[in-house]
UniProtKB/TrEMBL annotation:
Keywords: ATP-binding, Kinase, Nucleotide-binding, Transferase. The keyword Transmembrane does not apply. PANTHER family: MITOGEN-ACTIVATED PROTEIN KINASE KINASE KINASE 20-RELATED, SERINE_THREONINE-PROTEIN KINASE YBDM-RELATED. Residues 328-339 have a biased composition (Gly residues). This is Protein kinase domain-containing protein. CDD domains: STKc_PknB_like (cd14014). InterPro entries: Kinase-like_dom_sf, Prot_kinase_dom, Protein_kinase_ATP_BS, Ser/Thr_kinase_AS. Residues 1-28, 311-339 are annotated as: Disordered. GO terms for molecular function: ATP binding; protein serine/threonine kinase activity. Residues 40-311 form the Protein kinase domain. ATP binds at K68. It comes from the Bacteria.
Length: 339
């Protein structure tokens, strides 16, 4: 599943592993060949993050799955265990065919929680962009169409994903999109009681809405902002605010105080209709964004038919020429940026 980063795509690429990270990878690979509860044989390490490692595995009756094991240091954290459980609950409640399916949740003999999930073959959207050099616009729009269908169902079920980004969008070998990692999803009811600590930021900075960075309560429009940020990154081959030039703290300040630049100013060759959709999703003020996933989905489908996106076009005509006031402390938003 892993694809080596291409040097020509630095925005979406990954830094080389440190010595400590290489040692951690060796430790995680040492699990390969072991069996969980006498029935799940771990065949290969296929991914690892700050919270968990994912393995391809085979049940003793022969069917193959993916097993996601919480790191030992996370297993002793009540918050991380709750987040892990919430990933299973959110995926199960959603039950959408384009969301990764969680089949079971259990604990290893060493006390580490693990999820049993469907095994996907393919690559993340980030890896795909690295391998191809860029993802064709028709394919991006098709994947966004599917993503918005998943988010529509999630939001209707009271679930806000909160971490939409290219790494969490998986393209299978037959071209289907799967939405991954509901581990920090917010659920209105029936969740694991997970609370965000005061001052804690859950999500990936370059794709987070301003209100999410500021720790305010969020709704589905924060996910739509992340969809816009994902489209912006894939189309412009850069993040919203030149993230590679900023420290994490500077990026947090920039993302929370300054509107995103209009897509047309950094990627002038993009279809203006697509740019209007992206700009509307990235509006700084929550009430200026798409009101829900269905409205954004209707605009995306209009663009796919070669038509004008009705909501984004009407919203732009109504008021985007007014004076911008947000972000002036950081030099002010670029002309034409939705407020």
């Amino acid at each position: 599943m892993a694809v080596e980063p291409a040097a020509s795509r630095p925005v979406l690429g990954s830094a080389p592993m440190s010595e400590a990270e290489e040692e951690e990878t060796r430790r995680l690979r040492a699990r390969v060949g072991t069996t969980l509860h006498g029935k799940w044989r771990l065949d290969a390490l296929i991914g690892a993050g700050g919270m968990a490692a994912v393995y391809a595995a085979t049940h003793h009756v022969g069917h193959r799955v993916a097993i996601k094991i919480l790191h030992p240091e996370g297993a002793v954290s009540r918050e991380l265990r709750a987040r892990f459980e919430q990933e299973a609950l959110a995926a199960t409640r959603l039950g959408h065919p384009a969301a990764v399916q969680v089949l079971d949740i259990d604990v290893t003999e060493q006390g580490e929680p693990f999820l049993v999930m469907e095994l996907l073959e393919g690559e993340s959207l980030r890896e795909r962009a690295l391998r191809l050099g860029s993802v064709p616009l028709p394919e991006i729009l098709a994947h966004v169409d599917t993503l918005l269908e998943v988010l529509r169902a999630a939001h209707d079920a009271g679930i806000v994903h909160r971490d939409i980004k290219p790494d969490n969008l998986f393209v299978t070998r037959d071209g289907r999109l799967k939405v991954l990692d509901f581990g920090i999803a917010r659920m209105k009811q029936g969740g694991a009681g997970l609370k965000t600590r005061t001052g804690a930021v859950l999500g990936t900075t370059s794709y987070m809405a301003p209100e999410q960075i500021l720790g305010r309560d969020v709704d589905g429009r924060a996910d739509l902002y992340a969809v816009g940020a994902t489209m912006f990154t894939l189309l412009a081959n850069r993040r919203l605010h030149d993230a590679d030039r900023l420290t994490e703290g500077e990026l947090l300040i920039r993302m929370s105080t300054t509107p995103a630049p209009p897509l047309s100013t950094v990627a002038p060759g993009v279809d203006p209709r697509v740019a209007r959709v992206v700009d509307r999703a990235l509006a700084f003020q929550v009430e200026r964004r798409y009101p829900n996933a269905q409205t954004m989905l209707a605009d995306v489908r209009a663009v796919r038919r070669g038509e004008e996106p009705p909501f984004a076009t009407a919203a732009a005509a109504e008021g985007d020429a007014r004076t911008r006031v947000h972000g002036r402390g950081m030099g002010g938003p670029p002309a034409g940026a939705p407020l």
